[in-house]
Design goal:
This protein has helices at residues 9-17, 19-22, 48-54, 71-76, 82-88; strands at 25-31, 37-43, 66-69, 98-100, 112-117. It is built from five helices and five strands; from the N terminus they run ααββαβααββ.
Length: 126
């Protein structure tokens, strides 16, 4: 079938260039310190940062988008690259499963990614 009505041009382009990977839906659950959860569908190939922005989850900008993956999700996504590790060194309260959302590319092999946001303000502008 064709694209759903309302799909963006960007989505149309990525679907035509890599039809198999892009059509694979994966799920991301964001949670914050207030205990709120938001589970959203995403396309394999998107970054966690893109998914957050598309779903109005505030994670910071490209180099401050510190998130904490649950241990299973952290293992499933492979190790951070050197560039990301260097950025993480600049961030306070880094944990063993900390990542930058802009460096995590969602994969069809990882159907579910669980992400903890590092600040309550992510869902509330308080």
């Amino acid at each position: 079938g064709g694209l759903r009505v309302g799909a963006s041009h960007h989505l149309a382009r990525s679907l035509s260039s890599v039809p198999t990977a892009a059509e694979k839906t994966v799920w991301v659950t964001f949670s914050n310190k207030a205990g709120e959860r938001k589970r959203v569908p995403a396309l394999a190939g998107q970054t966690l940062y893109e998914v957050a922005v598309a779903n109005e989850v505030i994670v910071g900008d490209l180099y401050t988008c510190h998130v904490i993956l649950d241990p299973d999700s952290y293992e499933a996504h492979g190790k951070p690259l050197l560039e990301e590790e260097e950025e993480l060194e600049n961030i306070e309260d880094v944990t063993p499963t900390s990542r930058l959302a802009s460096f995590i590319q969602l994969s069809p092999e990882v159907p579910e990614t669980r992400v903890a946001l590092t600040d309550v303000r992510e869902f509330h502008n308080t």
